[in-house]
Write a structure and sequence with these properties.
This protein is of the alpha+beta class. The chain has a domain of about 70 residues. Helix content is about 45%, strand content about 15%. It contains four helices and four strands, in the order H-E-H-E-E-H-E-H. The chain has a four-stranded antiparallel beta sheet with strand order 2-3-1-4. A hairpin with an 8-residue loop joins strand 2 and strand 3. The termini are far apart.
Length: about 100
C-alpha cells in the first residue's frame, strides 16, 4: 500500500468518525417522550434544568448528558439561552444503545 492509499484510508476513517456524531446531533427532537439534555460539565445541572423547565428522570448521569422528561411545548431556543446545548430524542439514543422499545 502506498503512502497516498494509506492517507486516503485514514482520511476516510476520520471523516466517518466525525460524521456519525454530527448526524445524531442534527436529528430534531420530536417533542414526545424522554430526551437527553446535553449540558456543559461546568454548569450547575440542577439550576439549569430548573430554569429550563426540565425534569430529570435518569438514575445515572453522564459528564455531558442527563435524561429528562421535557414539557411538550418546550422551546429549543429558550433551552439554549438557559445553558443547554441540545436536546436529543430519547428513542434515537435508545436505538443507538441497542435498546428495543416494546
Amino acid at each position: 500500500m502506498t503512502f497516498i492509499e494509506r492517507f486516503m484510508v485514514g482520511c476516510t476513517l476520520l471523516l466517518s468518525l466525525a460524521i456519525a456524531p454530527l448526524s445524531v446531533m442534527s436529528m430534531p427532537y420530536t417533542n414526545s417522550g424522554p430526551a437527553l439534555a446535553i449540558i456543559p460539565p461546568w454548569a450547575d445541572r440542577e439550576a439549569t434544568l430548573m430554569k429550563s423547565g426540565l425534569t430529570e428522570i435518569g438514575p445515572l448521569r453522564a459528564p455531558f448528558g442527563v435524561l429528562v422528561q421535557p414539557n411538550p411545548s418546550i422551546d429549543l431556543a429558550t433551552l439554549r439561552e438557559n445553558g443547554i446545548w441540545t436536546l436529543l430524542d430519547g428513542s434515537l439514543i435508545a436505538a443507538i444503545c441497542g435498546v428495543e422499545n416494546v
